[in-house]
Design brief:
Rossmann fold; 2 domains; six-stranded parallel beta sheet; 411 residues; 12 strands
Length: 411
């Protein structure tokens, strides 16, 4: 008898693949049923009177920066938007845009019960996993649109994260190419993939342009890791803080919000061992604009903040080499190197176990060398198309799609 061993990572990946295959099959059946209904109904769809034209769903308050420019543009055009949020203290509740109706829908089963029976024409969200796990497509919702919340890889979502959206709003051509490859591999219908740019980065750039000059300040290094077993703190622990404090620079540590939920013990241990002082600041601001503005260099791993810092603020980075495991992600399906792998060396220097002890020198080289200016401009052109036009292009698409979906409705 031959016993087979499957390691936990591979087992998890296989389970995800099986779930995705079943989901794809169910999706195909549902699409066939919808087409039959449309044909029998002569292409017309009866819509309830209380159907909401536009719904935005945000699973966390930190995504308000993504949606705010779109809400503002919708308001300028006199459109009504219902904004559903899973955060009771979401900044949307302090916004007074005309036509914007924010609603707290709770979390967990209560949230999914609301989402799974939405009565809406167009639903916009940053949340992956539609029709994969608990969040299901509502039979009364017409069209689901995903918008990215970072200027980076679309295939670094968990497997099948965006498969069952009808459209994805993109910022670069490489993202479109990757999605088309995944659709072909999984025999999925092609989604609409308009490249609209990045509304939240447009706003950040405008805000930076209008901000007053920073007062003179000592050189500041920002450590902003992601979370999980491949992230900086899991790989290097407190050793990286020891090295940073030895540089003599002011150090700001801004962990990913999820770290305090998924890695609470680790965060508590680090904050106790390295308490706040005149040389070290722990930052948990919801809005990262000011902490990025007053930092001269960023150290991170695969967090999307890398691109915010480099492309908006025009500053260099140091990125770690965490031996990133693509097994749970859509990237596992593709044989091509990640776009991020080609982008990062143009934005700064890599921190490895071999040069880890020389972190201070790497910081000096990044801050003193002009070589990264051209690289930042190249990467910006690849992943941030249509700068300054993101919100307008996003709303143009949403309104055109709404008109298309409702042109044959029975009054």
């Amino acid at each position: 008898m031959i016993l087979m061993y499957i390691d936990p990572g591979t087992g998890s990946m296989l389970v995800t693949v099986i779930i995705g295959i079943l989901g794809a099959a169910l999706y195909s059946v549902k699409m066939l049923w919808m087409k039959l209904r449309m044909k029998m109904g002569s292409g017309k769809v009866a819509v309830e009177k209380k159907r909401t034209p536009f719904v935005i769903f945000s699973d966390n308050k930190r995504y308000w920066s993504v949606f705010e420019p779109i809400c503002r543009e919708m308001s300028k055009r006199g459109k009504e938007v219902v904004y559903l949020t899973a955060s009771e203290d979401d900044p949307v509740f302090g916004c007074d845009y005309a036509g914007l109706s924010p609603k707290f829908i709770g979390s967990g089963n209560k949230m999914y019960a609301k989402l799974n029976y939405l009565n809406a024409t167009v639903v916009l969200s940053t949340t992956p996993g539609l029709d994969v796990y608990q969040w299901k497509r509502s039979p009364s919702a017409g069209y689901y649109v995903h918008i990215l919340h970072a200027a980076s890889e679309v295939v670094l979502y968990r497997m099948f994260g965006i498969d069952y959206y009808d459209a994805v709003l993109l910022s670069g051509e490489y993202q479109r190419e990757d999605i088309r490859k995944l659709e072909k591999l999984r025999a999925l219908p092609e989604k609409e993939l308009p490249i609209i740019g990045i509304p939240y980065m447009d706003k950040m750039a405008k805000r930076l342009e209008e901000a007053p000059p920073l007062p003179p300040h000592e050189r500041t290094v920002l450590l902003a890791p992601s979370w999980g077993k491949s992230a900086i703190f899991s790989v290097y622990g407190g050793k990286i803080l020891d090295l940073l404090l030895k540089t003599g620079y002011r150090i700001i540590v801004r962990p990913h919000p999820q770290s305090f939920l998924s890695e609470g013990d680790l965060m508590a241990e680090l904050m106790a061992k390295y308490p706040a002082s005149d040389r070290l600041e722990w930052n948990r601001d919801v809005d990262n604009f000011e902490v990025l503005r007053r930092s001269d260099l960023l150290i991170s791993d695969f967090s999307g903040v890398i691109f915010d810092f480099s492309l908006v603020y025009g500053k260099p980075i140091i990125y770690t080499d965490p031996n990133f495991d693509t097994a749970p992600y859509d990237a596992w399906w593709l044989k091509d190197p990640l776009w991020t792998v080609s982008a990062l060396p143009r934005l700064g220097k890599k921190l490895t176990e071999e040069n880890f002890a020389e972190l201070g020198r790497l910081i000096e080289e990044c801050l003193e060398s002009p070589e990264f200016e051209r690289g930042i401009a190249e990467v910006k052109g690849e992943t941030w198309q249509h700068p300054g036009e993101g919100a307008v292009r996003a709303v143009d698409y949403l309104l055109a799609k709404y008109d298309e979906l409702t042109k044959d409705e029975v009054e």
